[in-house]
Amino acid sequence: MKYLSLIFIFLFFINTTAQTAKDFAADWDKQHFSKILPSNLRHADLKKQLDEIKKLGLKIEEVGRSYDNREIYQIEWGKGATKVFMWSQMHGDEPTATPALLDMLVYLQKNRSKTWIKELENNLTIRAVPMLNPDGAELFQRRNLQGIDINRDAAALETSEGRLLKKLRDAWSPAIGFNLHNQNSLTTVGKTPKQATISFLAVLGNAEGKTNDGHERNKRICSVMTSALENFIKGHIGRYDDSYNPRAFGDMISAWGTPVILIETGALHNRDEMFLVKLNFIAYLVALKSLVDKSERQADAKIYENLPFNDSGDLFNYIFRKANIVNFAENAAPFTADVAINAERRRADEIAPTYVREIGDLSIFSALDEYDAKDFYLVQKNGLLRNGAGGEFLFYKKTRQIDWMAKDLEKAFPPDAVFSNGKWTRGDTLLPKKF
Ligand SMILES: [Zn+2]
Fold first, then answer.
1. How far, in Å, is the centroid of ligand 1 from the Cα of 50?
2. Is residue 8 part of a domain?
3. Do 269 and 324 fall into the same domain?
């Protein structure tokens, strides 16, 4: 009897602790299939990857074409009764979930001998559409090639990609949907200066705020994912704005009978895109596992409900504090101001241009990188410092005597430091960094 209870304790132990979020993270570190940074991934790369995945026995079929005739694929895994539908990159420049989906499906396929994955295989059928907007992905732009935001086409259905998404949903009637996006990297968790690295929304799908069982279940699953990800990004998880939009797919797919969870991936300063892929991988697995082992039923929806809502506008990429601004073309006296600049969203292998967003007293705002510029003159590299100007600055020590009206200023008076599109090209340690 004593031994029997020991065995039970042991079984309980391996059942509950063998697949924690940290285990999934370690598994991803060792096994992840994706090697290309999501933002660098092209449709041609995806096709090659899908060819590889096919060899593992995963079911992959072309389910439609984009406006520009690029193939759109659906991958299927599992043979269970509960239908799970997941789609990524409906916005072409929101790529994190595409490799995360592949990583998850390859992981599930390769580890089918594990008991808990067998349970998933026997209870779920997952259908995933990675890169729903391949034309947008090719150009790294939000919209499709018609210039239409596919996520505002759920009612009009003027895009082939939107019509496909609706067709796939309607023909299959999944029990749950995962709508996978990226949000601005400067989105914050409430009014804190913390980046919202991941934000969740259990979509309601109606304007009146009426809930239903699927929505309540999805709130609990969002709680499960939140608890799991807090191991890695505590304080960096937000709740996405839940106002109803009758043109958006998340809302309409929920309204059509497939309650949707929206996952928006932001960024985390000094962590690369693959870290975000890993977070997605973990989130999907804990969500699916909780659905199958029914642990979501014990989860507290309040964990999700108490997440602070996303906010924006108070966090910048860079702020130069108390700089002495010289608008030399105006030949006016220097003035003191904080200067904030933001970088545009670009592929990892491209330079992200930066633009001036605010000039003045920015003491209530913060930035991912802040510099103390009080001992320096700041000169806009090309012309006058203005909102919308390029974020390229020359810095001169205040102790120097400079003729600001000199022809070819940079040549006549070489600057002490130069900041250009998010990088110091000269004097990189000169301005004190603020933390
Ligand atoms: Zn999006």
1. 23
2. no
3. no
